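FAQ
Q: What does a multi-component entry look like?
A: The components come first, one per line:
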Amino acid sequence: MLNAENYSADAMQAYDEENWIRAQRLFNQALALYQSIDNRTDTLITHINLVEVALAKHDSQVAQRHLTLATDIVQTDGLKSYQSRIALLNALMALQQKQMIKTIHFLNDLLPEFKDEIAITGINAIQLAAIAIRTEIAFQQKNKESLWTLRYGNALKKSANKNTALEARLLRFQSRLLLQQGDYEKSTANLQQALKIYKKNLSRSDIAATLLEIGMLYEKQSDWQRTLNYFKRSIAVFSSIRNTEKVNKVTAMLAKVKSAEANSALRINPKKSVDR
Amino acid sequence: MNRQIEKGSIKKDTGQYIHQITYNYRERLVGSFVFFGFILLLSFIIISVKNQHLFEKRVMFYIDVNSSDGISQGSTVTALGTEVGLVSSLSLAQNHKIRVAIEVYKQHHRFIRVGATALVNRLTTIGSAQIEITSKIIDAPMLEAGSTIPVEETPSLNDLLLGIANLIQSANNKDLFNKVEGILPKVEDTLTNIHGIIAQIATGHGVLGAAVFDQKVEKELKVVVNSGAKILSEAEGIISIAKQRLIQLQPILLDAKHMTHDLSSASQSLPEMIKELNAIVMQAKSALSLINEELQDIPGIGLDTKRTLSKTGQLLDSVQNTWPLSKNSSTPAAKQLIAPQSSYE
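Then the predicted structure of the entire assembly, as tokens:
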């Protein structure tokens, strides 16, 4: 039991450090130990943790496997307090697979009741995460982004589960709204503030994502130098957490920007191409 | 012969002169006017003589100066703000100096003591110098007449102006003004950088990670932090071993059947040993948390150190929670469930 707890503690630590492979290994070791003494609650918790780790690795197969096992335990043992968590994990997985309708379906049971932009009931951590996911969907579908951003902001104020990472997420949503309104300056300022928060928390995946967003912002303004700078920095951070998928994606974007920069240089100095 | 009768005299026809001895009022009035006028004149003369020290005895002293600029015969000499004498003569002395003879009035001789120095001040008035004698120790014996007093001279205004002109000339010759003009933009850049540094520190960007900062300092800090992290890793190894030993001891001490007299006496000292170990662990924990706070703002490097520190902190927690240390520990069990997430990048 003690060893299992130790493994779990170490795994939590590895998760905080975004060392997904190590976290997965340690959670699996803990899972084996909990299963050996038929500790159902801790087994369920470990399955949930393994789903989170698999989602972080974008490994949908492993995530689905552990989610199914977790759902079985909840249904078999009647552990109803974990049902909302299972629903949230389902929504998160559907979001990763870009199944928006399925995501909204899972979220509907989790979202609190709203009166315009204010939630009527109290907000717990799972509901706050659900509102954040719903806001992300709103931006992706370009539907009621402003309303959901306001709802998220108000829910964050109301919630007792505040942390700086959630505040940084709000800043990023607000930045996207400002971008839609064409206010590049304020949008950049919000993203820079969010970046500062993530750097303080040493949350590398969020740092990388924010750097990418800032780069994309400069790309819209055709500021190629800055765009290249931020894309390169984003690639460096994604590489450090071994997020190959994102590294490849940003590298492709970088190549496009370089070619756009070359084209704009040619337009300014057409003589050079003639001389060649 | 008959003469006209003159005023104040009686002349007889006989031709003999007899002096008048009685005067009328008008004559007396005129006479007293003349007399008092004379008295007044005399008193003025006496006062003037006294002020000009015309008949006063004088004591001679000498000072040797490099330049007689501003010094002339009759120049006043002061001591303690009082006029004590004057320059009587100037003459050439040895060592290409000018000997100035000062006559100090006898009544003011007491101001001139052994160890006195003279200051020739050419800056108070343009064109003339003021000679002031200062006695350092007023209780010292009076300086003998005929002594030479050491002198300090100030430059004249002309000399000062000439000196400044020379400086400007030489600076101009060495093109210093142009060089200063060239340096100023660089100074401005440096100041801008310094402002940038201060702004970055104020916004929590930290000391490391920017090209503007001293890379040597950054390297040294990295070395310190890395070596600190290594030390903590070693400590982690030692604590894990200690933890394993404690786990091994647990069943032996619990089973009362196996406790012999020797073992029970040995175990009596165990609580004290455990207390000591507990205290050491607590101290290490508080030191680690202090270091952790200090490293909060250092990106990059802080990640590794933070990781090591958190790991060591966790190990310390687990040692604390291990029997028999856990008896006195009321630390709650760590949360084992990952907090709900809304996205993974």
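Q: Is there any commentary attached?
A: Sometimes. For this entry: The CA atoms of residues 10 and 125 of chain B lie 68 Å apart.
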